[in-house]
Design brief:
Blueprint: E1 2-6, H1 12-25, H2 36-44, E2 51-57, E3 60-72, E4 77-87, H3 96-110, E5 116-118, H4 125-133, H5 149-155
Parallel strand pairs: 4-5
Antiparallel strand pairs: 1-2, 2-3, 3-4
Length: 160
């Protein structure tokens, strides 16, 4: 039996575990810098920066979806960016990923958001197929640009 619920403070260690498992799956295990303190501050502090839905299968931790709001100037509406969606391998094939995606989509509709967006690695064919089956379209004409670490400090005119 599947249970979906909003994350609570007590879920932070499990959320970080999911983030690390996802990074391992995406072949970037050393890229996770987030800590429990970061997740507590940004998800449960005075300046909330994300929301998270926890998935449990028969009471066992099975997966999560972490998202935040963005804004579309063209649509004149907020949107949702799904930062991470992850289901542990032992729980895949039970409809948990689909249920998480549907729940986030429902939140987007309830909040009158103009769109729901997320990123997927080009080599992750199973995820791409799953998302396309759910009605998502891959925007091949757009490329993600990122500035982080030392490059971000340099761009901001700040030295280390």
């Amino acid at each position: 039996m599947l249970t979906l619920r909003p994350a609570e403070i007590a879920d932070v260690p499990q959320m970080l575990a999911y983030i690390r498992e996802l990074a391992e799956y995406e072949r970037e295990p050393h890229a996770v810098l987030a800590t429990e303190t970061d997740l507590l501050r940004d998800g449960f502090g005075p300046e909330k920066r994300y929301d998270c839905i926890m998935a449990e299968w028969e009471g066992a931790p099975a997966g999560f979806a972490l998202f935040f709001y963005n804004y579309s100037t063209w649509r004149g509406r907020a949107g949702i960016h799904l930062e991470d969606i992850f289901v542990r391998p032992a729980f895949r094939g039970k409809g948990i990923g689909k249920a998480l995606l549907i729940r986030v989509a429902a939140i987007a509709v309830e909040q009158k958001c103009g769109r729901l967006v997320w990123d997927v690695l080009e080599w992750n064919a199973p995820a791409i197929g799953f998302y396309e089956e759910m009605g998502a379209k891959m925007l091949t004409e757009w490329r993600i640009m990122r500035v982080d670490g030392d490059a971000l400090l340099a761009l901001a005119g700040k030295d280390k």
